[in-house]
Specification:
alpha+beta; 13-stranded mixed beta sheet; Aminopeptidase
């Protein structure tokens, strides 16, 4: 039986084929997504496979940067998943799957530990067994999201509460409309405005955020929707990434401080557009902030738990890094 081994790859096409076929497939770990970030934030990124003979078992694509004297892997802005991905093991026996996954995690861990001083992996919700990370000394933090089936608009609408239906109809009667656009200026402004209401400064400046979003739109990795009132003012925006028949809630912002009925209308019109374009599933990409979780919960998605795992080595342990 062939042993598992680590292989560094410089082949974007090999990674892309693996990503599309993996049960953890997502846009945030696509080559094109990482390429945009690497150019704007001056990052290097690496492609790593664990193979059994020539067969890919698992993989990781990850960006790194230098912080003072240390090499670190930290989550990227608007990138909800950044963890190890696995090949679909199909009809393999459950015990064999567990053993092979744990061996893969160990191989990737050994490589990361050798090359990095601190690293964070945001695992996909389909990875529910994180004992190997615990045994290897990782900190483990649970995260939550809602996954919504939008394949049938009729079933989706029927599943809404009467209260939610009234909110959507009320916004429509008041003259709100939703448009798709390639312009990112409004969503960048509104994202910063919404974030800074908490009293904290946003992570990057407006120009860099605008540049990032423009490049994601240009690569067809982000679709922007504007909520427009009867005075033709854009009062809220949402950016969605469509990938492999699924949609991901990447970025949002609004002018108003409180969520209004029009925000529910915006989501419904987005679901309509996505469903008509053969998107079957919507990942809300986060439901751990109380107000945000309550808003997303109203649409009836299934709650999913995923895990963020982090590892610190050497002197950084004494500074509680990360």
């Amino acid at each position: 039986m062939a042993q598992l081994h680590v292989e560094i790859s410089n082949d974007p096409e090999e990674w892309s084929k693996f990503n599309i076929c993996s049960p953890q497939s997502n846009p945030f770990q696509s080559y094109d997504w990482l390429k945009v970030y690497s150019e704007i934030f001056n990052l290097s990124f690496n492609i790593l496979f664990v193979k059994k003979g020539e067969e890919v078992v698992s993989g990781l694509i990850y960006p790194t940067k230098r912080k003072i004297f240390f090499n670190v892997l930290t989550p990227l802005l608007f990138s909800y998943y950044s963890g190890i991905m696995f090949q679909d093991l199909g009809k393999e026996k459950r015990q064999k799957k567990i053993v092979e996954k744990n061996e893969s995690i160990l191989k990737i861990h050994e490589h990361l530990k050798e090359n990095l001083d601190f690293f964070v992996l945001k695992l996909h919700y389909t990875i529910d067994d994180v004992r190997q990370f615990k045994w290897l000394g990782y900190k483990i933090k649970p995260r939550h999201t809602f996954i919504l089936n939008i394949e049938s608009l009729e079933k989706l609408w029927d599943g809404f509460s009467n209260s939610l239906k009234r909110k959507i109809k009320d916004a429509q009667e008041k003259g709100f409309t939703v448009i798709k656009t390639k312009s990112v200026e409004k969503i960048a402004e509104q994202q910063i405005l919404s974030f800074e209401r908490s009293g904290e400064k946003f992570f990057i400046g407006f120009d860099k955020l605008k540049d990032l979003l423009e490049n994601l739109v240009m690569k067809n990795l982000l679709t922007v929707y504007h909520l427009v009132d009867k005075n033709n003012e854009v009062i809220a925006s949402r950016g969605i990434s469509i990938w492999n028949g699924k949609a991901y809630d990447v970025i949002a912002g609004m002018v108003e401080r409180e969520i209004s009925n029009s925000s529910h209308f915006l989501m419904w019109k987005i679901f309509e557009d996505l469903s008509l374009n053969n998107v079957k599933e919507f990942d809300f990409c986060g439901a751990d902030i109380e107000k945000v979780a309550f808003f997303k919960m109203q649409f009836g998605g299934e709650i999913k738990i995923s895990f963020e795992v982090s590892y610190t080595k050497g002197i950084l342990k004494f500074f509680n890094f990360g």
